[in-house]
Design brief:
With about 325 residues, the chain is an alpha+beta fold. It has two domains: about 140 residues, no CATH class; about 160 residues, Glutaredoxin. It is built from twelve helices and seven strands. Strands 3-5-4-6-7 form a five-stranded mixed β-sheet. The protein has a two-stranded antiparallel ribbon with strand order 1-2. Strand 4, helix 6 and strand 5 form a beta-alpha-beta unit. Helix 1 packs antiparallel against helix 2, helix 4 packs across helix 5 and helix 7 crosses helix 10. The radius of gyration is 24 Å and the shape is globular.
Length: about 325
């Protein structure tokens, strides 16, 4: 193990032993702890703990792979570097793979042509292959039952979120409530929307899902689309509008709300009046303000039973739900 890696690991491991809800400071004779902080600051404190935890686990995984390769190389009479090449190479990526990725991610490359970046894409995909191969090996090592992480994963603070009058799916009596703050122009939010749709459909009886807007640009097109979503909700067509907006994310414009309204056969006069209503804009602004109050700093931000969720792929969300049922 490299000395620098050992030093960083030791530092973070020691830091992670911080007592829960320890005293932070005293002022005018009163003691203040994390639980005394406003929700947004408590969330920021948690984010620091989470960053530390993620760093520790990455360092542990790196060292675990190093130990495994050394032991396996010794058993097989090979050099560690040679065995690494065999274990972590992954599938060889070709130009066809790069073209497939480019076609699916054109909106993320800033208008650059495929020929100008195909080399970068190949390198990126090859690195992903190597990382996937490493994760498979790690999963195999940890699955043998001889590994146990001694560092405790931090628990996100539980916050109360005002969701009244915002669109929801599922029973009011559901054991699990998922609240998502998202932006219609955010690519990660599009992926989250796809995952959440599947998860909620699969867990109808046990999950209630609430969507809240968090437009990153206060005057951008995604906020105009969010205002349109409020108006679609007024005519009981929120979810149709919602998924349509994400499906057409790459081509969103200021005309999109009206175009979606036509496709959904909404009453266009009512829709137009709603778009220009002060109350409609205030609803979107309240949603964003509520997100800021509890510490939302980016999108998508997903809360499950009031606690921040990390990861929005279907498997991660279903695992989090399972723990609460």
């Amino acid at each position: 193990m490299k000395r620098s890696l050992f030093f960083v690991f030791s530092f973070f491991l020691a830091a992670s032993s911080k007592a829960n809800n320890e005293e932070l400071f005293r002022f005018e004779g009163k003691s203040y702890r994390e639980s005394d902080l406003p929700p947004a600051l408590r969330q920021s404190m948690f984010e620091l703990d989470r960053q530390r935890y993620d760093t520790v686990t990455r360092l542990v995984d790196s060292f675990l792979l190093e130990l495994y390769v050394k032991e396996e190389a010794q058993k097989k009479g090979k050099k560690p570097e040679e065995l690494e090449q065999q274990l972590f190479k992954g599938k060889t990526v070709n130009e066809k793979d790069a073209q497939t990725w480019y076609d699916a991610n054109k909106s993320r490359v800033g208008g650059r042509s495929f020929d100008s970046i195909k080399g970068e894409i190949v390198n990126f995909l090859q690195m992903q292959e190597q990382e996937d191969a490493q994760q498979l090996v790690l999963k195999s090592i940890k699955g043998k039952g001889t590994f146990q992480l001694a560092v405790t994963e931090p628990i996100a603070p539980q916050v109360s979120i005002t969701t009244d009058a915002y669109p929801s799916k599922g029973s009011e009596k559901a054991k699990v409530t998922i609240v998502e703050f998202a932006d219609y122009g955010c690519p990660h939010c599009k992926h989250a929307a796809e995952s959440l749709k599947k998860v909620v459909e699969k867990n109808k009886k046990n999950v209630r899902f609430v969507y809240m807007d968090f437009p990153l640009n206060p005057s951008g097109v995604p906020k105009q689309v969010a205002v349109g979503a409020v108006c679609a909700d007024e005519q009981k067509k929120f979810w149709d509008y919602h998924y349509m907006a994400f499906e057409n994310q790459a081509s969103l414009s200021k005309e999109s709300p009206a175009e979606f309204a036509k496709k959904l056969n909404l009453d266009l006069k009512k829709f137009e009046a709603c778009l220009n209503s002060v109350g409609t804009k205030e609803k979107v602004e309240f949603s964003r303000n509520e997100g800021e109050r509890i510490g939302v700093g980016g999108t998508p931000s997903i809360y499950i039973n009031g606690r921040k969720q990390f990861g929005y792929d279907q498997e991660t969300l279903e695992e989090a739900i399972k723990k609460l049922l």
